[in-house]
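re: ur question from earlier - yeah i can do the single chain one, its not a big deal. heres the input i used so u can compare w yours
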Amino acid sequence: MRICVISKMDGRGGGASVVASQLAERYRIQGHDVTHLNLGSGRESHPYPEWNNLVGKLKAREARRGYRDHNPFELVSAKFRSIPDEFDVVHLHDMSTVLSHAAINWLSARIPVVWTIHDCSPFTAGCLYPGSCERFTATCGNCPQHRSWPLSSKYDRTHALHTRRKKLRSSDVFFTAPSNWMIEMYRKAGWPAGRIQHVSNGVDLETFRPRDRSKLRAKYGIAPEAGPLFLFSAGWLHDSRKGAIEAVNLVRALSDLNAQLILVGRYSDEAALIFQDVDFTHFGFVKSDIERGEIYALCDGTLLFSKEENAPLIALESLAVGTPIFGYSSGGIGEIVTSGECGFVAKPTEMKEIMAAARSMMIGEKHQALCAAARRRAEEFYNYDDISRDYLALLGRLMRERK
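and the output i got, formated as tokens:
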């Protein structure tokens, strides 16, 4: 097959773009002709290179007016319009600020399109996670997030944005999601249940693998007498959706064990206030997969207290390095973590139970068993080779159905 993968960035972009990059590479390994278009790899790999500056300016102007990703400016590009002639199928990933729904609709009328949902923006007016707001189940408007990215404008155009976006429901786009929770959100929004399929995210099992924790502690300057190390990672460490306060509370509760935090992500004045009363080591925003794999393997547990989550890569990467996960079962986290086997997750109302589990599971053979089970789960369910074959079967089927 001639496959066009489109994402916001290449593998350096994190999250959804990592998934796109990894899948593109495995499609190539399995003998397919693959082009990965994204905004971060230069002219040759840009989805609309000859009009990049103009399209970027038009998108920015419209975003300031509240019309984020509303108009299909991408269609001025001959390269973008040539995609249906040059490829057999298109696989989309994180499309916020990349392609409008109108442009995706144009593509889907001419070529099979699979869109992997990494957040809720495909079926909302643009917000990544709606929180307690349920306007997306009808038609958005009076949006509580309209001043937040990607809806960062003083004008609330979410009614117009959502009205136009819902036209994609009657298109030929086929969706996938890496969590059943996200599929339920998609269906809740009124999108067609027969045009979505569950396909897991994956993890690079070679880069993210178990390592000798004592050697890693020495390498990264962690004192031998330090107690259990708990990883907390977020793009911005103060992000309320990621649960920094809960992470601090758990480490405080285990202060008698000399528990400490390992922080990965961007620090800020707000983060300084949150973490001021606990011992931590901050590694910054780590782009290198190899370094991140070592840092994750250094830790004795990963803390995931997200209020809403799809299928976070940190969960898969933690399992792959053999680091158990503790936190909330929100969204897709409860689907990834088998509670009591490779960590412990529970409802936000059960924080005391999570703390007790973290305390009891950090000791001796019990912890070793958790670590081994975490790695086994990653190998069994999140191997990119298996996941890429699932996608290739889907892409091939959609091609055959279109002929």
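The chain has a mean pLDDT of 95. not sure if urs matches, ping me
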